Amino acid sequence: MRTTGWIVLTITALLGTLLSALDYSPLVLIVSPAEYFGDMYTAPPQGGATHVFFPGESVKLRIAISNWSSSPQTLLTTPGGPPDNLGFRVSRDGNAVNLGLAVDNMVRQTGPSGNFDVQWDRRMDLGPRDTLTVRADVLDKISTPGLYVIEVVHQMTDAEARLLRPQASRFQLEVRERSAETLCEIARRSALRAFLSGDYQEARNMTDQMLAANPQSFLAHVIRGDIAAAERSLLEADRSYELAIAMLEQGRDTLFLRSAGKFHLDDSLQALRSKRQRLSGR
Question: 77 in a domain, yes or no?
Fold first, then answer.
């Protein structure tokens, strides 16, 4: 009888767990970085984190609500706009910390129904595989190293009052202390941000810092090639890409090879050869 009772209790517990999971909406909430440049010159994230940042680096988040079902779904929000509906809990190394975050009012819908800006409303209809996206910026520059968890909290449901499935509502990042070995990575990210914003001179300055920290940085020459291509100095761009390829093939950028591994090596070589081909086809 004891065995039978234990089996009944176990089955009841399993059914309760299953039913609890089934109570979630097919609407899924996922938070991810809106801007991230990878880890080319530093070790992978530690402690269960998915991304590495450095003290003072800006952190921008993308909050997505997606309809993963094959039928239309309705998102029910609370009064106000995105800043009123999306809150955050933040911890560092398991302890709660205060970290200011600003949620944008602009909402973008993407998916089979089209790509367009939408007005946030109390009822928002999403077709199958459609996604609503909102941006959020961490206002405070994170200065203290550690393992941070930023969790999105909300009271939104679907039309059947089911909670959104928290598929990835927690963003885990490692803020890594600056060191001699991370200087090239920090300068690389600054160079890319400057390049993408159109500040080519600042991007060049950052490539100088990359080479000061790592004289064999092939990526410094890749960025210089991208700047030259953007400025229509195609011969200079080609020379930069050619030098970067030679440095990779000769295994000179040991910091990259140690951090990124063979997969990124092959991928980088293929990308650089494609860049040169596109230059010659212009």
Answer: yes
The amino acid that residue 277 corresponds to is Q
**Burial of 276 by CB count in 10 Å (0-12 exposed, 13-18 middle, 19+ buried)?**
middle
Domain that includes residue 132, residue range: 23-175
Please identify which residue in the block is written with the tokens 């494609």: 274
Q: What is the 3-state secondary structure (H, E, C) of 97-148?
A: CCCCEEEEEEEEEECCCCCEEECCCCEEEECCCCEEEEEEEECCCCCCCEEE
pLDDT in tens, 237-257: 999 999 999 999 999 999 999
pLDDT digits (tens, 9 = 90+) for 35-72: 999 889 988 999 999 999 999 999 999 999 999 999 99
For the chain, the maximum distance between any two Cα atoms, rounded to a whole number of angstroms, is 85
Both structure tokens of 134: 């909102």
